[in-house]
Amino acid sequence: MSFKGRQQQAQAIWEQFTQPGRLRVLIGSATCGRAAGALEVKQAFHEALAEANLTETTDVVEVGCLGMCFAEVLVELRGSDGTRVLYQGVEPRHVKDLVQAQLINDEVYAPLALAMMGESGTEIPAFDKLAMIAPQVRVVLRNCGIIDPTDIDHYLARGGYSGMARAFELGPDQVIEEMKGSGLRGRGGAGFPTGVKWGFARSSVADQKYVICNADEGDPGAFMDRSVLEGDPHAVLEGLLIAGYAIGATIGYVYCRAEYPLAIERLQGAIEQMHQEGFLGSNILGSGFDFEIKIKKGAGAFVCGEETSLMQSIEGKRGMPLSKPPFPAVSGLFGKPTNINNVETLAAVSAILEKGADWYSGYGTEKSRGTKTFALAGKITRTGLIEVPMGIALSTIIDDIGGGVLDGKPFKAVQTGGPSGGCIPAQFFDLPVDYEHLAEVGSIMGSGGMIVIDQESCMVDMARYFLTFTENESCGKCVPCRMGTQHLLRILTAITQGKGTIDQIETLRKIGDTMKKASLCGLGQTAANPVLTTLRYFEDEYRAHIEENRCPAGACRALITFSIDAATCTGCGACKRACPVDAISGEKKQPHSIDESLCIQCGSCRQVCKFDSVHVQ
Amino acid sequence: MGSISLTIDGRSVEVEEGTTVLEAARKAGIAIPTICAHKDLNPYGACRICVVEIKGVRGYPTSCTTPATEGMQVTTQSEPLRELRNRTLELMFSGHPNSCLVCVHREACEQYRPTATKAARSTRCGFCANRDECDLREMALKAGSNELHLPTLYASYNLERDDPFMDRDYNLCVLCGRCWRICEKIHGQPAISIINRGKWARIGTAFDKSHVFSGCTFCGACIDICPTGTLTDRFARWQGKPEQEITSTCQLCPEGCSVVAQVKEGRLLAYTMTEFSQEAGLCALGRFGAAQILANANRLTRPLVREGEDLIPMDWQGTLEVTASQLAQHRGKIAVVASASTSREDRYLYGQLASQLGGQLITLAVNAGAEDSQISSLMQSVEKGAITAVIVGGNLVPLELVTRLKCSVIIDALPSPVSEAANIVLPAAILSEAGGTFRNAHCRIKPMAGCSRAPGDARPEWHILCSLGQALNLRSFEHTSVAGITPAIVNDPPPEPIPGNPRQNVRELATRFRGHLLADILPSLGAFGLPATPKTAVTEPTGAGFTITEKKEIAPNMHFFKVVAPQVAKFAQPGQFVILMAKETSERSPFTLVDWDAKAGTISLVIEEVGRSSRELASLAAGETMAHVSGPLGLPLAIENKGTVVLGGGCYGIGAIYPLARALRQAGNRVICAIEASSSYLLYMQDTLAEVCDELIIATKDGSEGVRGGIQEVIAQVADREPVNQFIAIGCTFMMRMATAVSKELAIPTLVALNPIMVDGTGMCGACRVTIGEDTKFACVDGPIFDGHAIDWDELASRRSAYARQEVQALSQQVDLTALMHQAQGNGCSCGR
User: Fold this and answer.
1) Residue environment code for A7-28, b if the CB has 16+ CB neighbours within 10 A, otherwise e
2) Contact by Cβ (8 Å): B226, B128
3) What is the CATH number of the domain that holds A589?
4) Are residues B391 and B470 in the same domain?
């Protein structure tokens, strides 16, 4: 069967899946959904459907993640009338009612309804019009949460593998030109133009070349790659295949962290399907191109996200970076020319080849083309995975997509780029988010972690948190990183405990500067960024800790005391019950008080107080 | 490969393609500092010291990893580079005990202590065996700046001593990676690698197994390439820097590997590789065994001649005369037995002796011993009376052969039951003590340098044999040098190779040397499964001794003990000490009492691990016993109300001032305790001391806590702010001397507790003699506390260092690999260790 014919076949299957007729339950069952209880919800649906005798007429499908973490478990139901409604926060106890309402009565179950898929004629907003969704442009996430990731037909029907077919028509050199034209830059963090990188690897002459998909996503709080791998594995594998074709590699590796078992399972399934379809093996689609993909599981070292370490790890060696030059494009995996791209880049590649460079470069800014995914986390109302065009204002991301700072508290800063990144203070709230502007203010795009910080978060403590991570993850090979992270962490810890000295601020800067200039790999070169950018914008907070023995955010335990305002305390006893060390006493309906000698500054009382009576100083 | 030209610091350099910038700079005579780079290793780029600036290249690339390219313009010296290098160096040093380098008293201290203290873990240069050879130290002293003032982040790893030959102190490691890289280069699969991550990253074996089970071949390359004192040869560890390095040949097995003999003061420290390559690799025996065989405490040192039951020492001339006259009676019935591990010259002379005396020559293979078939037939000849005398170059014949004969001459270096039964024993100089040439199993003739001194009257075999030949009036024995013999050798077959490859497998090492089982000479070889003569087990007396109820290492090398000793506890007074013996066979060594509890019948001690005896004590665990605790000894401190008393304690003295502080305060004094340590992590008992004094002042040499400096700075500071009526110092002699000099200037009455070498502790032996003013005193009965201003410090220092060399030798003779040996026997042991 020709590729066209195969695509049409797939489209017929997809139409059957999407057209009204059968009842349908789509459950967001990526790892995030599962953590929220998606599999229990699925089980509940099976039981409820059986009870209602609907098992035969209903498709229950696990789909990937729509990115609305705050609303998990997400379930999309299609009733017999074809209405598709997205429900949020579904728990097994809701399932019976949902089945009764949506699938039997064709009525919207209002308490959990989040959005109408497609047109909305009711008060429930249309999915595309949701404040969180409207500003987004989903290229990389195009299929996540929409298709069954284990079904290659779904992927094919939605344009999948047309990029590959087009690449074979264009030929390797044209493919690289197409990539250059798209303006796509590496989404792993460094932002190197993908087409140029491919060009280097293509021009290296060797008997064997490799392409690698870097799926060792390790930044704390970042889950863009996992979501794509779990929700749309073919998009990534197609990109990898195209990269291999372009540079002349016949073997591709996916280096995926072992902590992503579902992603690995999805990849394995997808690779098997590719074999069945003839998309892997020799002479793929008659193009003369041979390609195989292998999965290599990472053992959990953050540094293995760095390309040379990653390749060492694939080779079975200890994951430690090597000096460049030689660059991987000249001498990489097993000493052969190697091209390495991250998951998001490759998922964009398949879309670019399918729809064209011009289409992709139509999004974004002049130097930062296309779209970027972000994992929105921290003190924000709507946490989740989003994809936006480059150049979008930070304020749009935080206020519109994210729904503003949690509980309406004042915005203080946003941390981008994870442990390698920096923070952007409130004064840059309207900053366009692209490579250049983020670098200008001292942060980085990174792989896409975006942590919103409110006034109750201490910047010194946050820097300390990231340094705890990098200190632990430094591979130990080079001096500036191994020793620098230890000293930064030591000093930051002392400051958050009120034991800092004023000259240590300068020491932090000097060590940070040394690490930046002298470290061997990106981990060490960027590890001081959380310290350097917080020092740049929040030095007063550091000084307050040191000179006044005060944590302005009221977060550093050693520097704060909790007290109960007798004037507003109602004596409800919530704080007393919450206190883990029995430091709170008071008669019922009488103002309570805290025994400072017992208090461990955990803040539980403050969290539970409904009257804002617990004060921190 | 074409050549390329580049410019370094304005100088143009022509190099081969593929050369790194660092190599190119070296070629041009431009020195770029580096730690991890080594000429025999591939570029690595870990220390980041060798950074340079290259026109058109962003940032500061490392010269060791950057290939030189045509037209490249490199700058190796600039202000930003200097600053970057110094800061990186400071960061590196913060992971390496460095307080000596920033100590203001460094020069005086090193002058006072010319050799480093033999600590267990090296906590500073002054406690480091590698002090005189340390690349880091050299670089730091050159750089000279200290801008960041980073405290030492001491990892506190235990000293690793779980194999027969190496001491590994990873607290000193800067992770330059030279060791595992050379291991990989020489052995393909390295036995060691970096393990763990972040601050716990260190060098180790897979799953932290002992090196004996890690595939390590004990070639010693890692030790020889280590730029710090992290990896050391246990035997050579404290012996200092070699004075001579001479190319020679190892004759411990027929492989006859080329070696570099490292010699100091006439003694062999080690055989090392001639270069860091696979081809030049050595086996465990050659690398570590040779020097230890030579240093064996039981070496034969004097000619011995039998008189009835006894072997009586005699001079060479007399011995040779006796030997010649005895042998002359057995002409034609003499057998000569030699080992293949001797030089060509020796074997030639043994052969000459045999043929001219009309006897037979038997040469035994390296691994062969008395059970060899040639020896069995010799035994038959003896029984038949065909052979009536033997000359044996080693432990090569059975005891009964010697006992049957009237005339047996043993030429050997080490005693054996056979030599003890012989008529005449001639002590031989061996290995690097003798010269000559060696033919190895691969037929190559190699030179052996005679470069170390033999013990006592031992002489090279060629010398002994020539003298003997002359005494017997034989022909062609008139040689005065070994080189004179060599041309006469016409036919010498190569020795039979030993099975296996000792350079790749420690279980295939040669098992014998001159017929002696090597594991008898070096018992730790038993860990490799090498055969040894079964020993009758020595049963330790059970239930005897003083039980240790508490034991912990409270700071690196500082061990706190609580021991049951009711009589001591009952009579102890502040300032007194006890003499301890870990085992019945241990040396007696004195330790100041830190605390005692008459009711519980226990005493407390702080023991600093700085030599063999303290190491024996430190290796005892709670529940075990010390063989002897004698005390309380010495005169107690007179406790009076003097007003303000400053107590200064350093090292073990921090603990030792505790009972004085407590008593003095009870007597109404204002007590100020001043304690010093090189760095904050070496401090201990701060809280305990704070409870018994009015003020606790801490001083550290690196400024990591409290006053920067030592006790002398503190006493000056205190005296500056308030009158001090009495100053008492306890600690190392250097500290007491320095502090006393200050207190003398300030006219503060000063007492010090002296720590001279002591033996019996009761005033009998006189070892602890000290001069106080005009008087000669014994520290054990007249002290240990004396007027600090009247002490002859120079005499004390010289008396204390009288046995420096013996102390070093004693350390290497101590081997306790019980746990390992048990593991080697198959982990089935129930001894609980």
Assistant:
1) beebeeebeebbeeeebbbbbb
2) no
3) 3.30.70.20
4) yes
Chain B residues lying within 8 Å of A475, measured CB to CB: 194, 197, 201
pLDDT digits (tens, 9 = 90+) for B99-122: 888 888 888 888 888 788 888 889
| Domain that includes residue A382, residue range | 371-454
Query: Tell me, what CATH number does A190's domain have?
Result: 3.40.50.11540
Top residue of B19, B48, B183 to mutate, by most chain A CBs within 10 Å, is B48
Q: Kindly tell me if the per-residue pLDDT of B594 is higher than 70.
A: yes
Does the structure show a pLDDT above 90 at B209? no
Nearest-CA distance A331 → chain B (Å): 14
Question: Based on the number of CB atoms within 10 Å of its own CB, is A540 exposed (0-12), middle (13-18) or buried (19 or more)?
Answer: exposed
Contact check, Cβ <8 Å, A325/B67: yes
- Domain with residue B586: its CATH number is 2.40.30.10
DSSP code, position A286? G
- Taken as a whole, chain B contains a residue count of 833
Domain annotation covers residue A149? no
User: What is the C-alpha to C-alpha distance for residues B399 and A394, in angstroms, rounded to an integer?
Assistant: 94
Residues A323 and A248 in one domain: yes
Residue A7 lies in a domain: no
Q: What does pTM read for this prediction?
A: 0.91
Return the SS3 of A341. strand
Q: Give the other-Cβ count within 10 Å of A567's Cβ.
A: 7
SS3 labels along A370-431: CEEEEEEEECECCCEEEEEECCCEHHHHHHHHCCCEHHHCCEEEEEECHHHCEEEEHHHCCC
Domain boundary among A547, A575, A595: A547
What distance in Å separates the CA atoms of residue A69 and residue A279, rounded to the nearest whole number?
34
Please state, in angstroms and rounded to a whole number, the distance separating the CA atoms of residues B102 and B701: 7
Give the pLDDT band (50/70/90) at residue B750: very high
Residues B425 and B552 in one domain: no
Number of domains comprising chain A: 5
Do both B385 and B266 map to the same domain?
Answer: no
Tokens of A231: 């929700």
Per residue in A189-240, pLDDT (tens digit) is 888 999 999 999 999 999 999 999 999 998 888 899 999 999 999 999 999 9
The answer to whether position B9 is within a domain reads no
User: Residues B297, B813: contact at Cβ < 8 Å?
Assistant: yes
- How many independent structural domains does chain B possess? 3
Cβ contacts of A326 within 8 Å, gap of 6 or more: none
| Position B524 in a domain | no
Give the burial string for A43-65 (b: 16+ CB within 10 Å, else e): ebbeebbeebebeeebebbbbbb
Please check whether residues A302 and A203 belong to one and the same domain: yes
Count A/B contacts: CB-CB distance under 8 Å.
Answer: 109
Q: Are residues A418 and A489 in the same domain?
A: no
**pLDDT at residue A472 greater than cutoff 60:** yes
Residue type at B194? I
Say if residue A214 is in the same domain as residue A322.
Answer: yes
Decide if B95 and A482 are in contact by the 8 Å CB cutoff.
Answer: yes
Q: In which domain, by residue range, is B237 found?
A: 166-294
Same domain? A394 vs A469: no
| Residue B263 CB-density burial (10 A; 0-12 exposed, 13-18 middle, 19+ buried) | buried
Residue B48, in any domain of the structure: no
- Residue B188 belongs to a domain: yes
Distance CA B654, CA B658 (A): 7
What does the pLDDT read at residue A295?
97
Q: Are residues B469 and B364 in the same domain?
A: yes
Chain B residues within 8 angstroms (CB to CB) of chain A: 43-49, 51, 59-60, 62, 65-67, 84, 87-88, 91-92, 94-95, 147-150, 153, 174-175, 177, 193-194, 196-199, 201-202
CB contact under 8 A, A482 and B199: yes
Q: What is the pLDDT of residue A212?
A: 97
